[in-house]
Every structure is written in structure tokens, then in C-alpha cells.
Amino acid sequence: MPNDKLVLCSHVKRSFVDGPQIIEVLKDVNLSASKGEMISIVGPSGSGKTTLLNIIACLDRPTSGEVYIEEALTNQLSDNELSKIRRRKIGMIFQDFYLLPTLSAIENVEVPMIFDDVSEAERKKRAIELLDLVGMSDRVHYTPRELSGGEKQRVAIARALANDPPIVLADEPTGNLDTAAGRKIVALLKNIAERKKAVLMVTHDPEAALQAHRVLILKNGVVQQELKENIRTI
């Protein structure tokens, strides 16, 4: 795989068994993402966007095909090896934030580093730097119930960056936000991509999708690259 490629999916298929039926969600998906690139993945509800993101995140395995994270062919890795890739190579931003409600913003950002055996002093230093990066330096000791939706998403982004992953995956990052907050989050994700990371964003929001460097449509189990002017018809 070329050195600038961080993600490569080749002929990826994913099917599920439902009683006597086999449901093909992903039929033949090919995509790549490079350093410094932000990609939007759009498509109708139920088209498999989240399934694709979960496969790239090593949370699910393809039925067939190949998925590379940097040089690692994930199909051939054990569960423990996949866990290490998730921890060190991938930052996941969920639509519903999934912040721990009893922890402060800084403590939530520290959590991934605990599992990577980072010292307490280094955890706190990096968490403060990341919260400053996402514009939350004045909210470090606030708990999730004290934060707005946009602020929670910013903390979630900081947490996704905790172990400095080269790949950031965002599943509907503006879905629970108002228009103004959503625009700020998308601008922040684009800024993160410019730090030589690959950002892949699943979204239903045409305005958010259009801010990416590339827009991919997932239709009938296949990813197609589309001209940006066509995106509003999806």
C-alpha cells in the first residue's frame, strides 16, 4: 500500500444471516483514505454506512475482501491485535457522544490513555492540550450534564485524539447538533485532517458532506465517487 494511504478497502463484502435469508449490506466496496484527507460517506438510510465505518474501525470483520490499516491487513489479525489497532491507530467519534457521565471533560479525554499505560502526569497534560485544541479549555472540569450538545461533541473529538491516532472516524458527528454547532464541528474535523490524519465522516447532512475533500456515495452496497454538485440529490 502507498505510504500516504492510511485506509484501504478492497472488494469488501458484509452479509448477515436473518433466519433463512442472507442480507448483503456491503456488496463490493472499494475506497482509500490518505494523510491530510477528509472524506464524507453519504447514502440512504440503511445503506450500510455505519457497517462500513465499523469494519474500518476493526469493530466488525468483513465477510470477504481486504481491509488495510496502514500496512496491516486486518483480516488476518487476532482479536487482541485488532484491539491494539483500535487503541493506537483509530479515533472513533460517535453520534451519541458516549461520554462517561460521572467523569469531567478532562477525565473523559484521559480514559483511552489509561488503557495505553500513559502516566498520570502525561495523561493530564495531553488531555488539557486536546481540550484547548477543540476550544474547551474553559470547561475541563465540567461533567457532560453541564455541557451543551456541541460541547459534548468537542470533548468526544478530543477523546478520539487522545492516543494521537492517524485515522479519525466520525459517525454522524453533527446529527444531534444545531446548524451553527454542526458547522464548527465539521470545520474542526477538517482542521484535524490537515494535521496529516485521515478523517472519514458518515453523514446525512449535505452541507457537512460538501466540506470534505471527497464525497463518496454508498448505494446498493457499492461505494461510488460522486461530483459534489450531485450530493444534494441524495
List the helices and strands and how they pair.
Blueprint: E1 5-18, E2 21-34, E3 38-42, H1 49-56, E4 64-69, E5 72-73, H2 79-89, E6 90-93, H3 105-114, H4 120-133, H5 149-160, E7 167-171, H6 179-193, E8 198-202, H7 206-209, E9 214-219, E10 222-225
Parallel strand pairs: 3-8, 3-9, 6-7, 7-8
Antiparallel strand pairs: 1-2, 1-4, 4-5, 9-10
Helix pairs in contact: 3-4, 3-5, 4-5, 5-6
Describe what you observe in this structure:
With 234 residues, the protein is α/β, with parallel strands linked by helices. The protein has a single domain (5-229), classed as Rossmann fold (3-Layer(aba) Sandwich). It contains seven helices and ten strands. The strands form two sheets. A six-stranded mixed beta sheet has the order 6-7-8-3-9-10, with helices on both faces. Helix 4 crosses helix 5 (149-160). The longest helix is centred in the C-terminal third of the chain and has 15 residues, at 179-193. The radius of gyration is 18 Å and the shape is globular.
Keywords:
four-stranded antiparallel sheet; six-stranded mixed sheet; 234 residues; alpha/beta; 7 helices; 10 strands; Rossmann fold; single chain; 28% strand; globular
Give a short synopsis of this structure.
The chain has 234 residues and is α/β, with parallel strands linked by helices. The protein has helices at residues 49-56, 79-89, 105-114, 120-133, 149-160, 179-193, 206-209; strands at 5-18, 21-34, 38-42, 64-69, 72-73, 90-93, 167-171, 198-202, 214-219, 222-225.
| Largest sheet: spatial strand order | 6-7-8-3-9-10
Number of strands: 10
Overall tally of structural domains: 1
Helix percent reads 25-40%
Shape: globular
Major sheet:
6 strands, mixed
**Alpha carbon gyration radius:** 18 Å
Beta-strand fraction estimate: 25-35%
CATH architectural name: 3-Layer(aba) Sandwich
For the termini, the CA-CA separation is: 32 Å
Annotation field: number of helices: 7
Low-confidence stretches: none
Structural class: alpha/beta
